[in-house]
């Protein structure tokens, strides 16, 4: 069973709150999470609900947030959750399979970025890794139609700095790593 030691010194399991527009997605995630030993669904909301209030009341330690909400401010909501709750881990559940989206999401304060096409195993790996203080990226990130991800050449005009956190992990094929003191990558890939 996957548990961590909480502030009180008592073992606890990840308490997960889900923000997703459609009830069927929230219900499906609740069923998956409740079946998985060591994980606890604590609640869910859609974009029209004051999910900040619910997070304050329910005290999750992981928030799984659907980045394709219709009125979702995306990056701004992730920033707001991070600002209000520095100790909560945030996993973005995304449709877009781009390095740029993953980078922007992590820069906003998310700890994980997984794709809706990923398996339940990847969902659980993301939750477990961020719960342990690691950053998690979907293993599918950067692959389009089965192609292997490509790195950027150093000094390319208009390209972001080479081998940043996201690019580094895509090139290495790793999914999880520890966040360093400045928020960057530390200690290499950790697997899952």
List the helices and strands and how they pair.
Blueprint (H helix, E strand, L loop, with lengths): L3 E2 L5 E2 L2 E5 L3 H13 L4 E6 L5 H8 L3 E5 L8 H10 L4 E6 L4 H10 L3 E4 L4 H12 L2 E4 L27 H8 L3 E4 L5 E5 L3
Parallel strand pairs: 3-4, 3-5, 5-6, 6-7, 7-8
Antiparallel strand pairs: 1-2, 8-9, 9-10
- Tally of extended strands? 10
Low-pLDDT segments, ≥5 res: 1-10, 144-174, 184-192
Secondary-structure-based class equals alpha/beta
The dominant shape is globular
Task: Tell me which CATH architecture applies here.
Answer: 3-Layer(aba) Sandwich
For the termini, the CA-CA separation is 15 Å
The SSE string, one letter per element, is EEEHEHEHEHEHEHEE
How would you sum up the major sheet? Answer: 8 strands, mixed
* Structure annotation, total helices: 6
- Strand ordering within the main sheet: 4-3-5-6-7-8-9-10
How many domains make up the coordinates?
1
CATH class: Alpha Beta
Give the rounded overall mean pLDDT. Answer: 75
Could you give me the name of the CATH homologous superfamily? Response regulator
Beta content: 15-25%
Please tell me how large the radius of gyration is.
16 Å
By CATH, the topology is: Rossmann fold
Q: How much helix, percentage-wise, in residues?
A: 25-40%
Provide structural commentary.
This protein is of the alpha/beta class. The protein has a single domain, classed as Rossmann fold. It is built from six helices and ten strands; from the N terminus they run E-E-E-H-E-H-E-H-E-H-E-H-E-H-E-E. It has helices at 23-35, 51-58, 75-84, 99-108, 120-131, 165-172, and strands at residues 4-5, 11-12, 15-19, 40-45, 62-66, 89-94, 112-115, 134-137, 176-179, 185-189. The strands form two sheets. An eight-stranded mixed β-sheet has the order 4-3-5-6-7-8-9-10, with helices on both faces. 34% of the residues are buried.
């Amino acid at each position: 069973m996957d548990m961590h030691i909480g502030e009180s010194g008592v073992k606890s399991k990840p308490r997960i709150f889900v923000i997703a527009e459609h009830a069927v997605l929230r219900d499906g995630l609740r069923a998956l999470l409740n079946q998985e030993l060591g994980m606890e669904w604590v609640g869910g909301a859609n974009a029209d609900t004051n999910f900040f209030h619910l997070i304050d009341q329910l005290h999750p330690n992981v928030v799984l947030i659907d980045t394709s909400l219709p009125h979702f401010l995306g990056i701004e909501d992730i920033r707001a959750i991070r600002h209000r709750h520095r100790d909560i881990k945030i996993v973005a559940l995304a449709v877009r399979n781009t390095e740029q989206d993953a980078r922007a999401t992590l820069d906003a304060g998310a700890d994980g970025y997984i794709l809706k096409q990923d398996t339940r195993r990847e969902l659980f790996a993301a939750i477990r890794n961020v719960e342990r203080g690691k950053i998690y990226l979907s293993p599918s990130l950067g692959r389009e139609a089965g192609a292997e991800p490509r790195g950027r050449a150093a000094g390319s005009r208009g390209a972001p700095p080479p081998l940043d956190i996201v690019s580094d992990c895509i090139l290495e094929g790793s999914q999880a790593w520890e966040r360093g003191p400045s928020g960057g990558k530390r200690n290499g890939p950790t697997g899952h």
